[in-house]
Amino acid sequence: MAAFSEIDSATTPAVSGEQMREVDRIMIEDLRIELMQMMENAGRNLARLAVRRFSPDRVVVLAGSGGNGGGGMVAARHLANWGVPVAVVLGQDRERVGSVPGHQLNVLERMGVAIIADPEPADLIVDALIGYSLRGHPRGRIARLIEWTGEQAADVLSLDNPSGLDVTSGITVDPCISATATLTLAAPKSGLLGTDEVGELYLADISVPPAVYRAFGMTMPAGVFAEDTVVRLI
Asked: What pLDDT, on a 0 to 100 scale, did the predictor assign at position 1?
């Protein structure tokens, strides 16, 4: 495993799910930093963490319909470009994928990346099913994919939070992913700290300017991403 810079979670400000939604709003509406840009940053960092932490021989990405799924699909593109065998499993019908994640799906299809109906064994499963917009218990196909993940011996890398875990409270619903590692974005979410389902917790830079944090009365540690765009929270 490649070494990562470490920062103390006790001195790093955490946000709630509602605050993170406001961060996204400020980024998109006020600063014109588009969702596509943030998704690209998230997915590239997810792919880098997957390779550096796990050195996988084969990856299966479970992708939801929103921004979380889009980040997973960006990661799949980078993994494919780096020569890592990867397949994507959608958590819903293609027609239900949002427009921005749908663009990422279209790119993967044009590249010839495998979009498969049912998950196949791999040594790393990327969980990009449900982000911080969790509402109630996962149902239907997404619930089945979470349950399938729990039956595998593979390592699991979750994007932003394990699917089925409330990012504000840390409460889990049924079913819920139990991750080997979680890559959260921009700032730690309060419900991730000290929660077993999260596994190792990493933080990724998606290019949020310091002024956005200050709008919430928060100050991120100086130079937290100066040496690397992924750091480990301890």
From this structure: 64
78 CA to centre of own chain: 14
Tokens of 203: 């933080």
The whole-model pTM stands at 0.96
Phi, psi of 181 (to 5 degrees): -150, 150
Cβ contact 213:27 at 8 Å? no
Q: Where are the domains of the chain?
A: 6-233
DSSP letter, residue 133: T
Which residue spans within the chain are E strands per DSSP?
6-7, 59-63, 86-90, 114-116, 124-128, 155-159, 181-185, 200-204, 230-233
CB 129 within 8 A of CB 142: yes
Q: Alpha-carbon distance 206 to 178, whole Å?
A: 24
Helix (H, G, I), strand (E, B) or coil at 73: helix
* β strands within 36-179, DSSP E: 59-63, 86-90, 114-116, 124-128, 155-159
CA atoms within 13 A on the CB side of 132: 25
Amino acid at position 41, single letter: N
pLDDT at residue 117 tops 90: yes
Phi, psi of 12 (to 5 degrees): -110, 120
Q: How confident is the model over 122-176, as pLDDT tens digits?
A: 999 999 999 887 778 999 999 999 999 999 999 999 999 999 999 999 999 999 9
Q: Which fold has domain 6-233?
A: Rossmann fold (3.40.50)
